[in-house]
Design a protein that fits this description.
about 170 residues; alpha+beta; Nuclear Transport Factor 2, Chain: A; 2 domains; seven-stranded mixed beta sheet; 4 helices; 7 strands; about 40% strand; globular
Amino acid sequence: MDAFLEPFKNSFILKVIFFLAMLLYNFVLNAQVDKNSSLFKTLQSKDSIIFERTFNNCETEKLAPIIAENFEFYHDIVGTQNKKEFIDAIQNNVCSKPRINKRNLVKGSLEVHQLKNNGKLYGAIQKGKHTFQQKTNGFFKTVGIADFTHLWILENNNWKLKRVLSYNHKPYTE
């Protein structure tokens, strides 16, 4: 077999073809769902409930129904929280002074990747970047940026947020 491959070892064209094949293979394996798909739009709306309705507008009653009972939150600055601790933290910190803090999804950063078991959809990974603003003198100023990764699980035909990774928090610089 080695003798058969010997003429191709130094072939530039073969290396280019191999590189393109690996690139395509990697793209197919890591492809996110289409941004116009119902899955993407559904999880995008869930993101809006978490942040626009709950974080930005302090409608915390919207949060509990979409969070799994065995929810886990991992934050690179404040540590870990379970469901109750997470909801309490939003109510007692962010919502102690409503509409002073604001979270914005970085446009174009949201991705959704399907999780399947034997071809059947059971979950999804949602990731993106978001900025955080604080109101000072009546105006919002962007003060931070971070990455997030959410694990959503389909439970009884309802999407539940099961795990959150919130990381790479940094001061915002333009």
